[in-house]
Design goal:
By secondary structure, the protein is mainly alpha-helical. Helix content is 55%, strand content 5%.
C-alpha cells in the first residue's frame, strides 16, 4: 500500500502502483489539509467574493461573474466543453498514472476540492477503474485540459473506462459498484483538470520503460562485443575515471561484469588495435544517455509532487492566488531531452547491427548471418528495419517545446506542447526497443557461430532465455515475428525490474 500525501511520491512507488497493482491510501495529514482548503472555497461562495474559477468564467471569460446558484452548472459545463481529446487513447497504464498523479497533487491542500472527490479517485485506482483518455488535444499549458477533462468525465458518469481492453460507459461501472457519479461543487471541475498530469503520467511511464531499456542495451551491446571479438581494454576503469563522468564509469563497469569469463572478447593487439566507435565508445555514448535519465528523473519527481492547478488557496485559506503552475515547460524540456537520449541508444545499436551483418565488418561471420549466403538473405532486411526505425526517431526527436501557439483569445498566449513531447518520447522508446531487439537477435546468432561454450556465463544465461522462444536462424523465416517476441520480452522486464537487477 502506497500512502499518498502530496509529497514524497517516487518513480519506484509509481512502478509498484502501475505494474504491480499496488493500492493507494490517503495520508491523514493530507486529508486534513484538503478539508481546510475546501472550507475556504465554501466561505468564498457564501461571502460572494469574486474569485477566478470559483464564481467566474474560465480563460478569456475570467471577467464574467457567475451567480451562486450556477456554480455547480459552471463546473459541469467546464468538464463537458473541455473534453475535446482526439485520436487513439493513452495506454491504460498512463491513464492509471494520471489518476494517481492528479490525486497526489490535490492532496497538497491548495486546490479547494472536497475530500470525497479524492476518495473516489483513490477508489478508482484501487479498483482499476481507468478512464479512456484520448492522446491528442492538449497544449500543455492551462494544464492538460482536454485529457484531464476525459478523466473527470468518468467521475461524473459521462465518460468511458477500460475493462478487459474494451471501452465501457462509466455510469455502468458505477452502477456495478453500487456508487453514484460525483456531482461537482464550486471549483472542483477546474481543480481536476488544471494540471500537468497527462504529460507527467506519460513521462513517468516513459522513464520507467527507458530505465529498463538502458540497462538492457548494455547486455545486448556486450553480446555484440562477444560476436565481434570486441576489445575490452576500452572499458578499463582508469580511462573512464580520467574523464570523470560517473555514468560513463558505471556503464563500463557493468559491461565488464557482463563479459566476465568470456573467451570471445579480445585484448588490444590480439586481432586489431582498436574497435569502431559503436563498440569502443559504449560507455561514453550510453553513459551520456544515463545522464539524460538522471535529469528527467529529477524533473519528474518534482512535478509528481507539485501543485499545478490554478488558482491556489494559500495561507490557510486567507489568500487565493491566480498563477501559472499549470505551465508544462519543465516537463516539455525534460521529455524533449529524453527523446534525444533514447534515440541515441537506438542509433548506436543500429551501427552495431550493421557490423554484425556486414561481411566486410563482422570479423568472419557469415554475410548477413545467413545460413546459405545468396540463397538465403538471413538478417539483411533486419538491418533495413532498424535503419528505418532510427530514421523515424530522428524526426520524432525534433523538440516539441520549441513551438507555441496562442489560445483563448490570446489570454493564454504561450504554451509548452509538453504532452506532444511526452507522446513522441513514448514512440521513440517503442522504436528503440525494437532496434535493440534486432541487435539482440543478430548478436545471439553471431555468438552461436562463434561457439556459445565460449560465452561469458551471464550472457550465456541471457542467450538461453531468448532461445526458448527465438530459434536459431537455420532458414529464412518471417523475422518480424521474432522481433515482436523479443520486444515483448524486453518490455515485460519493466514490470518486475529484471532489466534493472541484471547483476548483483
Amino acid at each position: 500500500m502506497i500512502s499518498l500525501k502530496g509529497s514524497g511520491l517516487t518513480l519506484e512507488d509509481m512502478r509498484a502502483i502501475l505494474y504491480q497493482n499496488e493500492q493507494v491510501k490517503l495520508e491523514k495529514t493530507a486529508k486534513d489539509a484538503v478539508v481546510n482548503s475546501r472550507k475556504a472555497v465554501e466561505k468564498i461562495v457564501k461571502d460572494r467574493r469574486t474569485v477566478y474559477g470559483i464564481n467566474t468564467g474560465f480563460g478569456k471569460f475570467s471577467d464574467v461573474s457567475i451567480e451562486e446558484g450556477d456554480v455547480r452548472t459552471l463546473q459541469l459545463h467546464l468538464i463537458r466543453s473541455h473534453a475535446c481529446g482526439m485520436g487513439l487513447p493513452f495506454e491504460e497504464t498512463v491513464s492509471r498514472a494520471m489518476i494517481v498523479l492528479r490525486l497526489n497533487a490535490l492532496l497538497k491542500g491548495f486546490s479547494g476540492i472536497r475530500l470525497e472527490v479524492l476518495e473516489r479517485l483513490a477508489y478508482m485506482v484501487n479498483n482499476r477503474i481507468h478512464p479512456v483518455i484520448p492522446q491528442q488535444g492538449s497544449l500543455g499549458a492551462s494544464g492538460d485540459l482536454a485529457p484531464l477533462s476525459h478523466l473527470a468525465l468518468v467521475l461524473i458518469g459521462e465518460g468511458l473506462v477500460w475493462q478487459e481492453e474494451k471501452h465501457i460507459p462509466s455510469h455502468e461501472i458505477w452502477a456495478k459498484h453500487n456508487l453514484q457519479p460525483v456531482v461537482l461543487e464550486a471549483k472542483e471541475g477546474l481543480a481536476l483538470i488544471n494540471g500537468t498530469q497527462a504529460m507527467t503520467a506519460q513521462g513517468v511511464v516513459n522513464w520507467l520503460e527507458s530505465e529498463t531499456l538502458a540497462y538492457q542495451s548494455e547486455w545486448i551491446a556486450a553480446m555484440s562485443m562477444e560476436a565481434l571479438h570486441g576489445i575490452t581494454d576500452a572499458f578499463h576503469p582508469a580511462i573512464h575515471e580520467a574523464r570523470g563522468y560517473p555514468e560513463q564509469t558505471a556503464v563500463a563497469k557493468r559491461i565488464l561484469e557482463w563479459l566476465k569469463g568470456s573467451h570471445l572478447v579480445t585484448k588490444q593487439g590480439e586481432k586489431r588495435v582498436q574497435d569502431a566507435y559503436s563498440l569502443r565508445c559504449i560507455p561514453q555514448i550510453h553513459g551520456a544517455s544515463w545522464q539524460v535519465l538522471s535529469y528527467v528523473k529529477e524533473k519528474l519527481e518534482i512535478e509528481m509532487n507539485a501543485a499545478t492547478d490554478n488558482p491556489l488557496i494559500v495561507e490557510d485559506g486567507a489568500v487565493v492566488i491566480s498563477g501559472g503552475n499549470f505551465h508544462g515547460q519543465p516537463i516539455a524540456f525534460a521529455m524533449d531531452f529524453l527523446k534525444i537520449g533514447i534515440a541515441e541508444l537506438a542509433n548506436v545499436s543500429e551501427r552495431r547491427i550493421e557490423r554484425l551483418v556486414n561481411p566486410q565488418l563482422n570479423e568472419g561471420l557469415p554475410a548477413f548471418l545467413s545460413p546459405q549466403p545468396g540463397l538465403q538473405s538471413g538478417a539483411m532486411i533486419l538491418q533495413y528495419a532498424a535503419a528505418s526505425l532510427v530514421s523515424e526517431n530522428k524526426t520524432l526527436a525534433h523538440p516539441a517545446s520549441v513551438d507555441s501557439i496562442p489560445s483563448s483569445a490570446n489570454q493564454e498566449d504561450h504554451v509548452s506542447m509538453g504532452t506532444i513531447g511526452a507522446r513522441h518520447a513514448f514512440q521513440i522508446i517503442q522504436n528503440a526497443r525494437r532496434v535493440l531487439a534486432i541487435e539482440a537477435l543478430c548478436a545471439m546468432q553471431g555468438v552461436e557461430y562463434r561457439g556459445i561454450d565460449l560465452m561469458s556465463p551471464s550472457l550465456l544465461e541471457k542467450w538461453h532465455d531468448m532461445r526458448v522462444f527465438i530459434p536459431s536462424i537455420t532458414e529464412d523465416r518471417i523475422f518480424s515475428v521474432d522481433v515482436e517476441k523479443l520486444n515483448t520480452y524486453l518490455k515485460e522486464e519493466t514490470v518486475n525490474e529484471k532489466g534493472k537487477r541484471v547483476l548483483s
